[in-house]
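Fold Annotation — chain and its backbone
Encoding — discrete vocabulary of local shapes
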Amino acid sequence: MGAVRTAAILLAGGAGTRLHPSENKVYLPVADRPLVTWSLRTLENSPLVDDIVLVIRAADAERARRVVAANPSVKLRALVEGGAIRHASEQAGLEALAPEIESGDVGLVVIHDAARPFLSHDLLARVVRTARDVGGAIPGLPLEAGVCTAGVAQRARAVSTHDLRRVQTPQAFWAEELLVAYRAAAVAGFHGVDTAESVERFSDLEVRVVDGDPHNLKVTFVEDLFTVEELAPTWSPTVE
């Protein structure tokens, strides 16, 4: 696949109940900027991304508009209301891009969690370029801790983690096949835990794992927010 128009779907619709029961974590401040603006700015500044769709909660619509107004983006094409679960939000973002995907104007789609603020240009480039070549790409990190089996009828047994990876976002895929896969998943009533699971079940795309980035942290718990706040002053998207 040669040079193609690439659209990024930035997921900012999660409830984040493990961090705060009512507050959407992507609007919490990190170094005096809402969390969502960190990855939004990286996507905006990347020459590999042509269009951005921001998926939000209906309850956050006014707040999202204020954030966008304070952080102008020439690539932002739409604010799209997501669903109750991640898979539904991904599909909402894809359907917003469907006319451009079906016409062939958009050839690659990148999906990223706004709760991962430290998206580097290097990581984005690895994912996008690999997906362009083979069909799909996801970043992964080696497991740092051991894994063992557990069961009542058998003794615990250590399991090799050599080939196991902790998967991150962004994840990127050929756009038309991705849209078809999600529509097939909707018919089947299937909800993947991430984009790659749905792609692997409902398409023939090759999905290749590339090296992830240990700085590409996800804010899930309160302590994660403290960690990214501490790292933010010295972090740059040009450095992994």
In short: The CA atoms of residues 35 and 198 lie 27 Å apart. The chain has seven helices and twelve strands. The chain has a mean pLDDT of 91. The domain at 6-234 is CATH 3.90.550.10 (Spore Coat Polysaccharide Biosynthesis Protein SpsA; Chain A).
